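Morning!

This is the sequence you dropped in the shared folder:
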Amino acid sequence: MLLLILLFSLATLDLVVGVSNDAVNFLNPSIGSKAGSMRTILIVASVGVLLGTTFSSGMMEVARKSVFHPEFFSYHALMFIFLAVMLTDVILLDVYNSLGFPTSTTVSLVFELFGAGAAIGFLTSIQSGLDPFNFDAYINVGSTFRIIKGIFSSIGIAFLIGCLVQWLARLVFSYRLESTLSKFGGVFTGLSATLIFNFLLLKGLKGSSLLSPSSMEMIQEHQNYILIALFAICTIIGQYLISVLKTNPLKYIVLLGTFSLAMAFAGNDLVNFIGVAVAAFQAYGIYSISGLDAHDLMMDAMAAKVPTPTLLLTISGVIMILALWTSAKARKVSATQIGLSRQGEGSEKFKSNPISRTLVSSISYLTSFIRSFSSPKFRSWTDSRFVTPVYEKVKSQVKENDRPAFDLLRASVDLMVASTLIAYATSLSLPLSTTYVVFMVSMGSTLADRSWGKESAVYRVAGVLNVIGGWLLTAVVAFVTAAIFATFLFYGEFIAVLILVVIAIGLIVRSHMGFSKKMKAENLMEDEVYNLSSTDDPISASRLLIASDLRRSAGIVTMSGQLLLSNNKRNLKQLLNEIQILGRRQKEIEFRLIRVLKRLEDKNKDIARMHLTAFDYACDFQQSAYVTVESEYNHLANLHLVPHGSFTMNYSENLALFSVYVSKIVGALENGEPEPHAELINSKRHIIMEINRAVEMDLNLYRSGEITTRQVHLQTKLSLELRDMSALAYRIHKVYFG
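The structure's back. Tokens below.
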């Protein structure tokens, strides 16, 4: 009974972390295209999720008997399999959420069941004197590999269909939707709406706990007539919106698609979150009336089909909706996919790699080869259909995230294709991966839309490869972790349960604390960029931005020097992490700032030049700070001799001079009041003179053999980097104040 309560508690938590990763995928097309306000999009999705949960009853078979043979296990062993699966799932999904990586909750569930079932089945066979390598006895090998094959084959199918449909749609409509919609918009609206209704409301209703078999049979009997009527009605409505109301009907198609994909998600993926707990509840019901010991009761009855209570499904839907509205990690996962499918240039989350460069180069050559077989007239016509619109320069700047990442046509295609594929798989009780389908359809349509240009292709392809690699890693990690947890539970039983639960809670709490800190830093960076572009005084905004980075870098250098001299390696490692984070922040902000400065008025050209120069000096300052801290940490980590006593005294004094000197410059930048030029020059010269004297002393000590090569390398490097930072700080002051 305690295990059952624990499983439902974990299932509730799994709903939250699962929705944060998986459910957000159906929001991306509407969020990326700005089809409505965030509130409107969430309301539409919430209704879809709530209705979709009633379609999940048939899918619950996956957790109960599709991966392993329940009749092989006792009730005692089965509960530990379920517990190992749930613990692994909660931890794994939370890690992916924190990284902002979309992964498949279906893949994680299947491989967790596979790993835990295989581990306990193997150990049970040994304990019972059976052949442990007879996997067919306890693992449903055929069904498992059929599920895995279906999941991974969906990657290629979704990509190709998304690419083809989007290419055809763009040829018909081009990017000039205001002119082409009046000709073909009504038919496209009718076709899109009909496909969504067909696969979701007709085929998707199969297995619903709300409809009786006779009602479902009547709908299927008149399916063709219903489809014809839907197409005619939706086409007329779409054309009326275009011609009479002068409204773009694709906005409503996107919202309808969001609703339909939310229903498909809830119908197909709810099993990933509560299927294990529901199976445990059904197993407990069998155990409670059997009168047998938990070790003696074999779970043959679990192989029978058992409907899931509609109330339980509804409660699960409500929890998912609450998570959808409140999860910050969901927004981070969403931003990853939207960033990869964004139209045009922008800051890129992923770095290029040799594989992405090779793929882009190969595809470019292949495309050129194929185009050589078409006529110049056809190439000219197709190219004209893919000419992207240029956003007009507006005086009132907006944040980058407030502009559409792509247009409503692509969003409509993404939702139409993805919801169709997922709903069809649901109707066949196939555990298709919602994440894989939505993500790959989006990437296929992005490729067809020529959104990956020369400026972004290698980064976007690298991002896709990283995400797909993460999917493969999900399978391996889920299998291995669940198997390890199951083995630990098999031998440790309730003591092992307590230990694993404490570990899981600790990991999740730590993850959320780190995530909150990271999101706070990212939001601060967004605000800083926005303030620079929207303020009436960009010089002040620029100075404050540079001052903040300068203060942080200088503070880290001063603290790291003190930690080096006190031989504090642990805290020095923390400072190294902090300066690395600052460096990544500067790289992320650099590209955005260049585009912000591009939008400044002509009269502010000097401001753009001023900021770029100061920002370049600040980046150099940070790089010197990073080299300083890294050298100090590596020296201590490699157990080299501590710095010489004379260096310790000189470096402490120079750090004190440096700290006072930089504080004056930072204060001037923050207050807008320059420090006296002569005083700064004298301070800088004094610091440099003291540093040069210290370097000469170190070299003399080295020549006399009093310090080693490692010591002199560290001591001179720290002094020279401090000299460079002193010069850079003065240059920053000079940029703003002359």
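Headline: The longest helix spans residues 457-534.

More detail when I'm at my desk.
O.
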